[in-house]
Design a protein that fits this description.
Layout (H helix, E strand, L loop, with lengths): L2 E5 L2 E4 L4 E8 L7 E7 L6 E6 L6 E3 L7 E6 L4 E6 L8 E8 L15 E2 L3 E6 L1
Parallel strand pairs: 2-11
Antiparallel strand pairs: 1-3, 3-8, 4-5, 4-9, 5-6, 7-8, 9-10, 9-11
Length: 126
């Protein structure tokens, strides 16, 4: 079991940047695929990005490709999401997720992860 706590959300103007962090507890963090999902009001939770246990593989939703970068530091048990060129449509609650089942596309883009954080609000004003 991995416990996850997100931070770094906030209010930013369109075109700005934010960096989200996800701190994990548990000795098996480095063995988990890590991901970010987001959910806007009235919409389903959608995949944003995922990263393999080693950090050597990443996978992005088309809507954020080229603007967002996912990374992880296994020594610090932390995952990150650098968000640049933010748009109003990026406004959502962002969730960190972890799963030990291994790297498999496109399964890693499905919201079937076994561990979730509580979410952090990102609001982009126009």
């Amino acid at each position: 079991q991995v416990q996850l706590v997100e931070s770094g959300g906030g209010l930013v103007q369109a075109g700005g940047s934010l960096r989200l962090s996800c701190a994990a507890s548990g000795r098996t963090f480095s063995r988990n695929v890590m991901a970010w999902f987001r959910q806007a009001p009235g919409k389903e939770r959608e995949f944003v990005a995922a990263i393999s246990w080693s950090g050597g593989s990443t996978y992005y939703a088309d809507s954020v490709k080229g603007r967002f970068t996912i990374s992880r530091d296994n020594a610090k048990n932390t995952e990150y999401l650098q968000m640049n060129s933010l748009k109003p449509e990026d406004t959502a609650v962002y969730y960190c997720a972890a799963d030990p089942r291994g790297w498999m596309v496109p399964r890693i883009s499905n919201p079937t992860y076994s561990n979730w954080g509580q979410g952090t609000q990102v609001t982009v004003s126009s």
